[in-house]
Amino acid sequence: MPSQLALFDLQPTQTAVQNIHLRKFGQSVKLTEQVRSHMCVKVRIKHKDGTSLAATDHVGPINLLLQSLFSEVDVGLQGKVITSTTGHYNYKAMLQHLLKDGNEAKMSQLTSQMWIKDTTDKLDDVDVNAGLNKSLHARAKYFSLSKLVDLEGPICHDIFNIDRYMLNQIRITLTFL
Predict the structure, then answer these.
(1) pLDDT digits 0-9 by tens, 47-93
(2) What CA–CA distance (Å, rounded) separates 79 from 6?
(3) Is residue 83 a part of any domain in this protein?
(4) Burial code of 35-65, b = ≥16 C-beta within 10 A, e = fewer?
(5) Does a structural domain hold residue 124?
(6) How confident is the model at residue 29 (pLDDT cuts 50, 70, 90)?
(7) Tens digit of pLDDT for each residue in 147-163?
(8) All residues at 6 or more sequence positions from 101 whose CB lies less than 8 Å from its CB, including other chains
(9) For residues 117-135, average pLDDT
(10) Which end of the chain has the lower number of beta carbons within 10 A, N or C?
């Protein structure tokens, strides 16, 4: 077929992702349930040159850090991209959690994604050490001295919100940018 007629073929894309671990399900007739799919990420904040943070370095991560790490997540089935967030994944994830999850979930389940609600009327206070936003200070303590932090949460994409089963031999690819 001439390349001019290949309307649905994707152009090659060069991406670079480090330390992505994929879990491959066995080749059986069992079904997989996307709504139970989660990502687990180990995060350590260091200086640009790779050295660890000192006690005098104060770094305050953003709320819902796990979902904010990625600006785009592409999902493919059988080698074809079926949906893309086109650079808005972090906003979509934030809105989804703000609108869908109740206060109880935000105080318990979402803490595994580094959700700690900012102090009311203190969102503009970015002083991690002496500021009035106590939630920013609480998030910063997790990462002080370049501690390794485990984050875990759902993949906020439409296909992972469907409460249906998919055959196990369907190859699902995820690209995090």
Answers:
(1) 988 899 999 999 989 999 999 988 888 888 888 888 877 888 999 99
(2) 15
(3) yes
(4) eeeebebebebeeeeeeebeeebbebbebbb
(5) yes
(6) low
(7) 999 999 999 988 888 88
(8) 109, 110
(9) 91
(10) N
What is the residue range of 142's domain?
Answer: 25-176
CB 64 within 8 A of CB 114: yes
Q: What is the 3 state secondary structure string of the chain?
A: CCHHHCCCCCCCCCCCCCCCCCCCCCCCCCEEEHHHCEEEEEECCCCCCCCCCCCCCCCCCCCCHHHHCCCCEEEEECCEEEEECCCCHHHHHHHHHHHHCCHHHHHCHHHHHCCCCCCCCCCCCCCCCCCCCHHHHHHHHHHHHHCCEEEEEECCCHHHHCCCEEECCCCEEEEEC
* 96-105 pLDDT per residue, tens: 999 999 999 9
Domain membership of residue 19 (yes or no) is: no
- Distance (Å, whole) CA 82 – CA 80: 6
Total tally of structural domains belonging to the chain: 1
Q: Is the alpha carbon torsion for 83, 28, 165, 94 positive or negative?
A: negative
